[in-house]
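Reagents: none. Just compute today. UDP-N-acetylglucosamine 1-carboxyvinyltransferase.
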Amino acid sequence: MDQVFGNLALQDTITAEPYIEIEGGVSLRGDISLAGAKNSALPSIVAACLSSDEVVLHNVPVEINDVRLLIELLIEAGAKIEIHQNSLICCGSGWKGGALDELVAGKIRHSLLLLGASAFWGSSLFLPLPGGCSIGSRKHDLHVLAFKAMGFDMIENEMGLLLNESRINKESNIVFHYPTFGGTINAIFAGVRGNGTKVTIYNAACNPEVIDVINLLNKMGAQIRWVNNNALEIIGVPALRGTVHNIMPDRIIAATLISATGITKGNVNIHNISGEVLAAELTTWRKTGLQIDETTYGLTVRWTKRLQPVDVVTSAYPGFHTDIQPLHTALMLLSDGTSTLTETILDGRFEYCYQLAKMGANIEIVPGNFNCVNGAAGQIAIIKGVDRLKGSDVVATDIRGGAAVAVAALAAEGNTKITNIYQIERGYGNIIDLFGSLGANIKRVSESK
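Predicted 3D structure written out:
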């Protein structure tokens, strides 16, 4: 960042940090279709680089910051990627591995997945400690466990992770104590190539996004199958072939729209989304009194009365998604009573609540008598519904926390200014159009000094 400001200092005009401005009080109404899912697109782009043939991906949210950063890292590692609007043409035949750029890798947690790609290609790779959202202690120990269980030579120190050139075991068993999303994907990438090698992953993540990536790899010739509800079996094949694949719609953006519709007393039709991928969340939100109906094209969401408080405990899929809990918090801000939100996955996930408090939200964060999945002390948010919110100057603390304050601002009286919007744009390609197309008074402002 210093280099950027240093270069700008030579110019007569400096562009200040952009921000989002929202004038609240408008009920969202209309129809909207969903873009491709970020959490499927990122691992799918890496998967598409596991073939010497061209793999074409459609419905890729290429405008998202994390997608652009991942593409930059993959090209640095030797992959070839062409961008054609919302489609990518990927080829991994030039994979060379090496040491990844610390500044880029440090901004995105999905940089971890390049370890799996390098294991696939038999290349060494040094990964500086990965970044992402600052929401607690996000460990990579399960990734290391998986690589070592498969026989790969992995060295871990305070600088980062080093994968040395090594071969996969003939047969491997990986046992996760928690169904880790990234750990499961990395183990799959490292295990799909081989001459009849066998990898079994117990307690594998079964998120819809994981299923989408598995479907892509199987279309490329991989042999991946579920042997029961939470165990995956991977039989290594000599090579993967080219194919064409459409990235699934983004269920977290769908959840964002549902939350925004509920808090603004709106009526919105969300196209190309299945209620099945949000089963736990829809069950919860219907209990609040929000009317959510499944249709042939997707979901219809309609506010009919003041929402009732409903408690939530986050858990692995098919439970209530930790990425969606900030959106539930936003939905509860104007509810008729008190609700609790127990975060069991990541500590430090309630930082956004202090921003909501600036808008008049009544939220208390208290210690929980439990530890999160990452081993840190858990917390509970106690949300007491208020009659109204007021606009304020707030900060986007992370992707989904930033989305939560934006959702709250839509219902607040007056003007809200949201800074640090880089975080929001890591997961939402164009949140201005997303809400603006449904009638919201929202704009992105870039000031010059």
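Residues 251-263 form the longest helix (13 residues).
Action item: order primers for follow-up constructs.
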